[in-house]
Amino acid sequence: KIAKKYKGKITYLWGGKPTDAQIKGKEQPKKLDCSGFIQFVYSKYNKKRIESLGSTISISGLPKIKKNELQPGDIGLRNGTGSLYFDADGKSYSEPGMAQDANESKEKSFDKKIKARKTKKTQLKDRIEEKKDKISEYKDKITALNGKKDEVIDISESEISSDNDEQQEEISEEEKEQQDQQQRIEQQKKNNEKINALIKSYNEKIKKCQADINGYSERINKYDKQLKKLKKQRKKYKKDIEESIDHVGIYCGKNKKGEATWCHCSSSKGGVVYEMTDIFTHYYSANDYLSE
């Protein structure tokens, strides 16, 4: 009787739940959703708010009964699980905002990973440029060193020999020239050995720099593949959440034709209606909320 009283007087509003004042009869509810209407009717009947009737999910936890066991005042659901909202991973939530928040949280997580890999790529590219600059520097040094090979060595008289002055005076000009030439050759040989050693060290450094560049390039390729995969995975969480919307009503018995009649707040029909319908497929006992 309470439910049928509000036929045509309450319009549908998604998320609309009754206030305490409405339950106590101090205010007339104007807009409720289907579970809000159920909560309002049973709470008004019991003169206190019944929290467990505030959502289709909680209503689906009531004792299940078969269709032929329905009694006036029992409750019917269209889906047996209540209204559920799924994020991109398929996890279910009782509110669409919760599913959306889960998707956005995953997006942020992927954004963080993408940003980190982009930063690492930039750092590696900077290192590659540094290594290339070093290679150019080493090559310039090698070129300069190659130009110093076989340079004419200026040998002063003090460098010619370590013998005393008397011995130097006894040496003929021809012998002195030969000694000078020999010392120049030896000095050039030592000089070239030092230059070759330096060139070798620079070539080793160039080789090391190139190996580093190759390693950095491989890591960049790795990050590129990871970025491509992450961006693809991130798109998954951009899609709209999936909905499995339930509907709930109060069984009002059978009409003269023996057809099941229900009172419910329908979004498609604008609000509370009392009608014969077969949209409800799961049934629950409301005995716990009814008294003689």
H-E string: HEHEHHEEEEHHHHEEEEE
Structural class: alpha+beta
> What is the total domain count?
2
Strands ordered across the widest β-sheet: 3-11-4-8-9-10
| Overall geometry | rod-shaped
Distance between the termini: 14 Å
> How would you sum up the major sheet?
6 strands, antiparallel
Mean pLDDT: 90
Model regions low in confidence, pLDDT < 50 over at least 5 residues: 157-164
Radius of gyration using CA atoms only: 46 Å
The number of distinct β-strands equals 11
Count of separate DSSP helical elements: 8
Describe the structure.
The chain is built from 8 helices and 11 strands. The chain has 292 residues and is α+β, with helices and mostly antiparallel strands. It has 2 domains: 2-83 and 245-289, Alpha-Beta Complex (endopeptidase fold (from Nostoc punctiforme)); 98-238. Strands 3-11-4-8-9-10 form a 6-stranded antiparallel sheet. β8 (248-254) and β9 (260-266) form a beta hairpin. α5 runs antiparallel to α8 (173-235). Residues 157-164 have low confidence and may be disordered.
